[in-house]
Amino acid sequence: MTAQTLVDAVVVGLGPGGEETAGLLGEAGWDVAGVEARLVGGECPYWGCVPSKTMVRAAGLLADGRRIPGMAGTAMVHPEYGPVARAVRRATAGWDDTAAVERLTVRGVRVLRGTGRLTGRDEVTVTGSDGRESVLRASRAIVLAVGGEPVVPAVPGLAATPFWTSREAVEATAAPESLLVLGGGSVGLEIGQAFGRFGTAVAVVEGASRLLPREEPEAGDLLMRVLTEDGLEVHTGNPLTGVDHGPKGFTAWCERGERLTAERLLVAVGRRVDPSRLGVGVLDVDPDVPALPVDDRMRVVPPARGVPGVWAVGDATGRGAYTHLAVRQASVAVGDILGAAGGGVAGGEAGGARGEVPEAVPGTVPGVVPAAGRSRAEYHAVPRVTFTDPEIGAVGRTEAEARERGLPVRTGLADVATSARGRIHRVGNAGFVKLVADTDEGVLVGATAAGPCGGEVLGALTVAVHARVPLETLRATVWAYPTFHRVIGAALEDLGP
Predict the structure, then answer these.
(1) Of 373, 393, 417, at which residue does a domain stop?
(2) In angstroms, how far is CA 25 from the centroid of its own chain?
(3) Strand, helix or coil for residue 472
(4) Where do the coiled-coil regions begin and end (predicted)?
């Protein structure tokens, strides 16, 4: 008979959102079990945000060194990837999550290794790597926080080859001689440009008509120009029709007839979650849905008398695979969970298993609002950054998205080189700021900051979109000279009255 453990809450998946959820509930005095099949912390600290930015920063240093002649003296740059690989290993602790587990344990969370799936409204069955099963019974809440997996497109021959995903690319100990990147989105372009600066011959293939197809077309055009000048070969609107692998590496064929060869092939066309592996059928949720249906308090199923509620955060909600969004959703979910539990007191048999726990008042846990004013998830101002050089930062809706929704749209566009005179940074002053305004409401509904420090310039624009700051207030703002964020003022001038 499978052993059962009764707890207050079960969190399935301990990536950024799940780790934050479990930790906040643990700090509130709840008996929390967190389930993770891989590494606590998820994709971001081990194969995503943290190590990839280590690669990007190192590649940026090479680019800066190559710009010294003619501006600051003389310099000879000799790329060496070994130090980068070692820095990545240090940043990821050698892909060891011991510290992350200890961090959660200190917050009052017990960590279980294995794959979790719902086997009842209040029950999660955990299957360990050895095939053994254990059952967790939740008396108060279940939170589904599983991350996504890389999408492998149905290109003939591809699945049978030893292609890379971002994981293998990050773990590489040497820069390949040549690299074919399938996908012209953020991940493919960041890694492709980084390896290119270490001497790798890089070719990017994007099936859509432009790079970064989900962003403003001006952003894709800018990167097409800059990456081509950087030595990358870029193919857009030209999907692959077949892939083969042999002793000399990869061979790929494009729809227009090009034949491309490379030592390595990186698949970077996106990620997706498979809700069916979570057993969501017991919640009367269609297991074939691309993402879990949640309300604005992150509830899949609200709590009912005698039955815990089920919440979801992070990639599983389909709102974007961003660490910052997952952590925000965790705050919303925990605020709702503690409020629904009447103040967050661990109680019943589960709470008693840890002894008497002082009453936890919602709002005393960092990042969680009081139950009386529980916040709701909003998605009109979610920021996103592509850490290429130049950076592409964006928030809210693109012009096309705003028009598709029938909004009365006006745009403003300003060039960085014109508006930030005197500043030379990385790729010079290549870039722009584009604003998308709802003229009826008199507010920004979207914005893009492309160029040097684009992700940092995005901060001011994110506040403007999130807080729905009136355009007249933004126009009255004094922008420091000569900063890159001053381009926002120029874009507002172009937007007109």
Answers:
(1) 373
(2) 23
(3) helix
(4) none
- Same-domain pairing of 330 and 475: no
SS3 at position 59? helix
User: How far is 137 from 157, CA to CA, in rounded Å?
Assistant: 44
- In-domain check, residue 61: no
Same domain, 142 and 289: yes
Ordered DSSP codes for 134-184: EEEEEEEEEEE----EE-----TTGGGS--B-HHHHHH-SS--SEEEEE--
The confidence band for 292, taking pLDDT boundaries of 50, 70 and 90, is: very high
pLDDT digits (tens, 9 = 90+) for 232-255: 999 999 999 999 999 999 999 999
Residue 53 lies in a domain: no
pLDDT tens per residue, range 45-77: 999 999 999 999 999 999 999 989 988 999 999
Last residue of a domain, one of 249, 269, 289: 269
> Do residue 137 and residue 282 come from a single domain?
yes
Q: Is the pTM of this model over 0.85?
A: yes
Q: Which one-letter DSSP state was computed for residue 75?
A: -
Residue 431 has pLDDT above 70, yes or no: yes
pLDDT tens-digit readout, 189-230: 999 999 999 999 999 999 999 999 999 999 999 999 999 999
Which residues does residue 96 pair with via DSSP β-bridges, in sequence order?
none
In a domain, 66, yes or no: no
Q: Are residues 415 and 444 in the same domain?
A: yes
Q: Is the pLDDT of residue 359 over 50?
A: no
Q: What is the CATH number of the domain that holds 211?
A: 3.50.50.60
Quick one: 32 and 137 in the same domain? yes
Q: Which residues 6+ apart lie within 8 Å of 125 measured at CB?
A: 2, 116, 117, 118, 119, 133, 134, 135, 136, 279
**pLDDT tier, 428 (very low <50, low <70, confident <90, very high otherwise):** low
For residues 343 and 362, is the Cβ–Cβ distance under 8 A?
yes
Q: Which DSSP category does 9 fall into?
A: E
Is the backbone peptide bond immediately before 482 cis, with ω within 30 degrees of 0? yes
Of 322, 431, 454, nearest to 377 by C-alpha is 322
Residue 296 lies in a domain: yes
The reported pLDDT for the residue numbered 345 is 38
Cα separation, 239 vs 394, in Å, equals: 26
Tell me: do 257 and 306 sit in the same domain. no
User: What span, in angstroms and rounded, lies between the C-alpha atoms of 403 and 405?
Assistant: 5
Taking the C-alpha atoms of residue 115 and residue 112, their distance in angstroms, rounded to an integer, is 9
Nearest to 158 by CA among 243, 88, 60: 243
* pLDDT, tens only, 2-18: 678 999 999 999 999 99
* Structural domain span for residue 488: 383-495
